[in-house]
């Protein structure tokens, strides 16, 4: 499986918006989050297109309006971030997904799926 591209902090903020709210136009993204980042609408559109180029977002036209959606599931993106953190900390095993049980972004089902991804990846690493 291909590792998802690591999002920047700002891209992660945008991804969380898509994971929570589903498909959004650039204007809707601007209203929800970009104003708080101090971005102009053209900056928001530029960042959305860069994220699409990285494979983090997909775009479709709906009644002549560009609508974006997350193309990477949150478990895959967060799992990749957790694996990188484990590697940076030179840990022997993966971080336990249960450490994030208080997250408002992750459901109990997400945490179980994240544990499965991390355990599977740890098993693949041991096999090497």
TrEMBL record:
Keyword DNA-binding annotated: yes
Family, similarity comment: Belongs to the BlaI transcriptional regulatory family.
Keyword Disulfide bond belongs to the record: no
Keywords for the protein's UniProt record, in alphabetical order: DNA-binding, Transcription, Transcription regulation
Pfam families: Penicillinase_R
InterPro entries reported for this sequence: BlaI_family, WH-like_DNA-bd_sf, WH_DNA-bd_sf
Record protein name field: BlaI/MecI/CopY family transcriptional regulator
UniProt xrefs under Gene3D superfamilies: Winged helix-like DNA-binding domain superfamily/Winged helix DNA-binding domain
């Amino acid at each position: 499986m291909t590792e998802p591209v690591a999002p920047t902090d700002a891209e992660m903020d945008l991804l969380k918006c898509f994971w929570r709210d589903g498909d959004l136009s650039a204007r809707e993204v601007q209203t929800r989050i970009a104003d708080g980042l101090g971005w102009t609408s053209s900056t928001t559109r530029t960042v959305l297109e860069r994220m699409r180029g990285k494979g983090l977002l997909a775009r479709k036209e709906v009644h002549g309006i560009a609508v974006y959606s997350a193309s990477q599931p949150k478990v895959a993106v967060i799992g990749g971030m957790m694996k990188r953190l484990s590697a940076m900390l030179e840990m022997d095993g993966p971080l336990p997904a249960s450490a994030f049980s208080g997250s408002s972004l992750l459901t109990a089902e997400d945490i179980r799926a994240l544990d499965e991804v991390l355990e599977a990846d740890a098993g693949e690493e041991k096999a090497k």
